[in-house]
Amino acid sequence: MLEVITLALATPIAKIILDKLYEGMGSKLGEKVVEAASAPIQKLGQAVWNRCFKGKPGTEKVLEAAAKGSEPELKQMRDYLLKEMENPEFVGMVQPIVREIHQVLVQMDDVNAEN
């Protein structure tokens, strides 16, 4: 059973939640940003994994397929996480971590704008 979630597996989770909390920011989560924000992305992925998916049959396969960019699994995860986001307790848990990722994004946007 998956105990520690990898950065690759955490990234789709982060993208979905970023998109929801910061309109469309998840699409800006490219390779460079993922590298720069790897710690909070992994922290977010782990927190969400432990709360939502761990120990549930089939979730590991869904997450692995989503990490590879498979649309049906990505949609399945997105639907599930968007439902979770209706829970204020869940949002309260993820918000501070997502804010960290968002700050990295904004900083990198500023750097790119200057170049």
How would you explain this protein's 3D organization?
This protein has 6 helices and no strands. It is 76% helix and 0% strand. Helix 1 crosses helix 4. The model has no long low-confidence stretch (mean pLDDT 91). It is mainly alpha-helical and 115 residues long.
Assign a percent range to the helix content.
over 70%
- Structural class estimated from helices and strands: mainly alpha
Q: Which parts are unreliable, with pLDDT below 50 for 5 consecutive residues or more? A: none
Oligomer: single chain
Keywords:
single chain; about 120 residues; mainly alpha; about 0% strand
Please outline the helices and strands.
Elements: H1 7-21, H2 31-36, H3 38-53, H4 59-67, H5 71-84, H6 88-114
Give a short overview.
The protein has 115 residues and is mostly helical.
